[in-house]
Amino acid sequence: MSSFLFRAMDARAGVFLALMAAVIILVPACNLFVPESSPFHVPTYAVTLMGKYLTYALLALAVDLVWGYCGILSLGHAAFFALGGYAMGMYLMRQIGTRGVYGDPILPDFMVFLNWQELPWYWYGFDMFWFAALMVLLVPGVLAFVFGWFAFRSRVTGVYLSIITQALTYALLLAFFRNDMGFGGNNGLTDFKDVLGFDIQADTTRAGLFAASGIALVICFLICRSITRSKLGKVLVAVRDAESRTRFLGYRVEHYKLFVWTLSAMMAGIAGALYVPQVGIINPGEFAPANSIEVVIWVAVGGRGTLVGAVLGAVLVNFAKTWFTAALPDIWLFALGGLFVFVTLFLPKGIVGTVSQGWTALRQRKISSDFSEGSGDPPSQPPQSPGAQANVEKPASAISRAGAAHPQPAE
Fold first, then answer.
1. Which of 78, 88, 176, 330 could form a disulfide with 291, with the two C-beta atoms 3.0–4.6 Å apart?
2. CB contact set of 241 (below 8 Å; sequence gap of 6+)
3. SS3 of residue 108 by DSSP
4. Backbone angles phi, psi at 127, to 5 degrees
5. DSSP strand E in 39-132: where?
């Protein structure tokens, strides 16, 4: 465990974790313990809104893991997000009991309305939180594993893989819209009452959900950071930059891709499960392919292949979305499209990547200047791109440093 944490830590990770710790502690405290008359009071609606941002940040982190470090551009991660949300929504619906509109102790209201006579078998067990939490991980994870097993063994890559992932989420969208699927059809699942016995509308519950979202984001960040800074991460970078060469050197490329793809899907499922009780609804609209494309924009804006950039991009873009949809609702989509074009043309490495590159170049320039004046050590290497700062190495060096991965002959 100490080795795991050591690999995950550096200056950037330390700053991020310190900020997250402050946010997780201060926001709920300012909501629960600071009087409403105080300028430091955080209203409950703001806590809920920021909690939603944290779940989006976790989703962006999952996409950055597969896209930024393994080169898998997924346009279907909204499917895993929504499946995790539906698993949590089914648990919350089972907790309503006789407090529903029709007062049925077993069947949710939409099933009574549609004249269902008994609870479908796939709803069994969702009256228990531990079972629902397990399904939050297993359902997206199993779907991702099966999908990735066939896709990666068939060596589907690039734009073709992106199109297939988008087709997957669209197929799920159409399926969940059907009333006979047993998931609420177009209306989805809503009217939740409590979670783990706590009133879901209470200020303390909202603060607890916010803190849980922040803690989940920190844990998943540490996991991703440890993976990307390990020998496994170097092989992933090699797969991203030169997949054919990596396979030729004896690595089971499909195994590495399948592992990181499944892990990313499970992270997206956790994000969806934390999202649902905070927004109070889950419906098939969450499967929309446009949602997956928007997540890719968050990662691109923050900085692909940086992890911290994915979190920053998700928070900034969604904050801008909240402001634009309230102040200028008619131009939000144009603003989002313009932002993506601007980042592609002028900030191809994203905010964090561009800042990191500029800081590295400035530091190297200072070292060179000091050395030319007769003081200081000689510059060790020329300025590197931010990708190199985040273990984005050339394939050959990445592979040579991954000796402990014990490559096996390719099939």
1. 78
2. 71, 392, 394, 395, 398
3. coil
4. -80, -5
5. none
Please enumerate in sequence order all residues whose Cβ is within 8 A of that of 181, keeping only pairs 6 or more positions apart, or say none: 175
Residues contacting residue 214 through CB under 8 Å, at least 6 positions apart: 20, 23, 24, 54
Q: What is the pTM of this model?
A: 0.87
Residue 47 structure tokens: 């806590």
Residue 365 corresponds to which tokens in the numbers above?
Answer: 């320039």
CB 238 within 8 A of CB 71: no
Token reading at 339? 């932002």
Indicate the residue type of 391.
N
Rounded distance between C-alpha atoms, residue 68 and residue 307, angstroms:
8
Helix (H) or strand (E) holding 281: strand 281-282
Q: Which residue has the tokens 């919350």?
A: 92
- 101: closest CA among 111, 86, 87? 111
In one-letter notation, the amino acid at residue 320 is A
Supply the Cα-derived Rg of the chain in whole angstroms. 23
Question: How is residue 381 annotated by DSSP?
Answer: S
d(CA 16, CA 12): 6
- CA 336: distance to chain centroid? 19
CB 239 within 8 A of CB 253: yes
> DSSP letter string over 155-210?
T--HHHHHHHHHHHHHHHHHHHH-GGGSS-TTT-EE---EETTEETTSHHHHHHHH
Provide the greatest CA pair distance for the chain.
Answer: 86
**Which tens digits make up the pLDDT trace of 56-73?**
999 999 999 999 999 999
Contact 52, 279 (CB under 8 A): yes
Residue written as token pair 């405290």: 29
Joined together, the tokens standing for residue 352 give 């964090």
Tallying the residues shown for the chain, one arrives at: 411
